[in-house]
Description:
- This protein is an all-alpha fold.
- The chain has one domain (53-275).
- The protein has 9 helices and no strands.
- The chain is elongated and about 70 Å long.
- The model has no long low-confidence stretch (mean pLDDT 85).
Amino acid sequence: MPPADTPRSIFGPVELLGERALAVVAHLGYITLLVLEMGRWVAKSVTNRKVRLGRAAIVAQVVRVGVRSIFIISLVSACVGLILVLQMAPPLDEFGRKDLVANIVGVAVLRELGPLIAAIVLTGFAGAAIAAEIGTMVVGEEIEALEAHALNPVRFLVIPRVVASVVSMTAIAVIADAVSIAAGLGVATLALDISRQTYVSNLLDQVKLVDFLTGVGKATVFGMLIGLIACGNGLKVSGGAAGVGKATTDTVVQSVVAIIIADLIFTAIFYAWRLV
Length: 276
């Protein structure tokens, strides 16, 4: 505690930083407890046939989260493929190797941009919607009604949405990769006078199966992060409609930050592994 006669403004920034740090730690702890609770119900469903996680609910969420986002993610991914080719072609042309644009597009899309762009778009498309939906249920006391009927919210609300986010994100990352590469092939063939055979040959020579699996693995983790953060923020809503709006905003911000940090960690690990 600072002395009573000390101006508070001196310690204000430190106190604010401490409050933010404690809030982050508390939120991480809450997400960890949510993961443990999910794991408990998944284990119960495996060991006890009477405990079901709701296959119909999971399928419905996959359609809502994944299928309905395919168009917008495909559109963004196609634009990313076009941008990569058009940006990289001029500097490569200076060295007379414009045809190597396929090599760069393949590696960049499969390892990084495909799953990363898809995850960020899915965060705004589905993550915020999940947080708003669960938050509205909290405000409307529907969560309390479930608990009053001995129905666990994690089992019936969180698990289907997290599973749907993981499955959808993994599948959508593959679609995003294919669309980006196909868009790059189109513009390279039509605008840069690179033959289709050359583009495909260079692409296959450069990329390996590990590049594809790296991106898909990242996408799976990204989907888990989006689902957990969205559900966690939704369940913590308080303060009526304003709380729901804050939960959606926090979900988008936290998900994007978590995805970027996770991507950095994965990239550092894979880079170190390749050096070894």
